[in-house]
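A.,

Following up on our hallway conversation. Structure tokens first:
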């Protein structure tokens, strides 16, 4: 099947209450997604705190394009294609670093931090060749668009389209809440990153983020053990870890009562169901510090907005309460990379960050008993959608209800409305 045929058929593959199995298993559909979704929308690249000083950089991927996010001498953050203008080699190596200039390791072409070509060994050899050192193609080109919102940096391969504020829309309240929870009103990435490779299509992961129906089934063995561990725990942190897992035992009625918000462009969020507050001196100290900045009413407003797994379609998810940040990178039709960071709230007691790291290790670590449950379920779905035993995947649950809770698949239907709109738009992005 050619891409042109995929374009014609894309709209028919996602109906309101069902999607065709090919959206998860067809490599041609995946290629079209890279062009029409990831090649157009705002994709999360990194957090400004990851490049605090001039010359600091991190590498990332936008729609399979290697990019580098770098702090400029004037303090601005730019996002450049990670490509030498000479023979096309990657210039910035590794995941992060600091440099005064970018120097290609192949032939030594050197670039300023803004990507402009600075020097070429034996440049006189190019005399009379027609080579133009001032042409954009000679440098490390900036992406068509990049912008930041409260420290979160996004980029787009498309020169035209909705601005970042329009793209984030009402879901931006989740990023605002994360920042407002910090006593100094600022966040920073602290600690390492959990890198996970999942043997499933990227959409399967997004479809599970607010799925309240799976927890009692998929996580049954882990939450039974966690309840016993919580009851016998001798310290607050051990009890917290156990309670994070045990929270998956909420029954169907309790899950149905959790509101799920659906927003334009496929975004969504879900009301939290894990206990965030703690009657221990460290947590009370944190609240006191937050009140010093926001006042009692302001601090209560920030802490009472409890959201779980807010999702910015298609590349980013955050958990505001426990400061979790996840970037979703599709690698193939059946392979997805998810990178997880924990943000530190500036001005908060160190205990708060340790607790949030404990949450990450308990829920997101590849060795977590919760993560193992989910990965097994994702892989089984991927295995099943390749079967010809059925052509369609059901999204009917909750379609007849007026309200959307965690038992409804309304947020998945919302994702596919966005998917269908992107996939059936005939306009192409030149950068992709």
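Then the amino acids I'd put at each of the 432 positions:
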């Amino acid at each position: 099947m050619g891409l042109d045929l995929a374009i014609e058929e894309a709209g028919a593959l996602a109906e309101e209450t069902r999607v065709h199995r090919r959206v998860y298993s067809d490599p041609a559909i995946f290629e079209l997604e890279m062009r029409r979704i990831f090649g157009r929308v705002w994709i999360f690249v990194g957090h400004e705190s990851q490049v605090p000083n001039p010359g600091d950089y991190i590498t990332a991927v936008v729609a399979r394009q290697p990019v580098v996010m770098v702090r400029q001498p004037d303090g601005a953050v730019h996002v450049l294609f990670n490509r030498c203008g000479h023979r096309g080699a990657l210039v910035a190596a590794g995941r992060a670093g600091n440099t005064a200039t970018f120097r290609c390791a192949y032939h030594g072409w050197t670039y300023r931090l803004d990507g402009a070509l600075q020097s070429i060994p034996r440049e006189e050899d190019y005399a009379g060749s027609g080579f133009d050192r001032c042409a954009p193609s000679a440098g490390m080109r900036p992406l068509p668009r990049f912008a930041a919102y409260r420290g979160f940096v996004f980029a787009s391969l498309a020169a035209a389209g909705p601005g970042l504020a329009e793209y984030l829309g009402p879901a931006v309240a989740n990023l605002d809440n994360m920042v407002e929870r910090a006593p100094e009103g600022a966040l920073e990435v602290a600690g390492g990153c959990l890198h996970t490779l999942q043997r499933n299509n990227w959409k399967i992961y997004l479809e599970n983020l607010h799925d309240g129906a799976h927890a009692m089934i998929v996580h049954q063995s882990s939450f039974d053990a966690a309840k016993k561990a919580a009851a016998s725990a001798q310290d607050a942190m051990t009890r917290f870890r156990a309670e994070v897992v045990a929270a998956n035992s909420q029954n169907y009625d309790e899950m149905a009562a959790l509101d799920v918000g659906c927003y334009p462009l496929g975004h969504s969020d879900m009301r939290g169901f894990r206990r965030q507050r703690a009657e221990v001196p460290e947590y009370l100290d944190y609240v006191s510090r937050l009140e010093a900045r926001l006042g009692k009413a302001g601090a209560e407003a920030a802490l009472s907005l409890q959201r779980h797994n807010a999702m910015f379609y298609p590349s980013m998810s955050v958990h505001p309460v426990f400061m979790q940040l996840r970037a979703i990178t599709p690698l193939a039709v059946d392979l997805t990379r998810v990178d997880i960071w924990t943000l530190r709230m500036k001005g908060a007691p160190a205990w708060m960050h340790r607790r949030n790291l404990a949450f990450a290790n308990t829920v997101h670590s590849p060795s977590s008993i919760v993560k193992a449950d989910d990965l097994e379920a994702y892989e089984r779905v991927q295995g099943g959608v390749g079967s010809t035993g059925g052509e369609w995947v059901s999204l009917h649950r909750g379609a007849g209800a007026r309200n959307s809770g965690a038992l409804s698949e309304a947020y998945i239907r919302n994702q596919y409305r966005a998917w269908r709109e992107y996939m059936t738009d005939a306009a192409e992005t030149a950068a992709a």
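The CA atoms of residues 83 and 90 lie 5 Å apart. Curious whether your intuition agrees with the design.

B.
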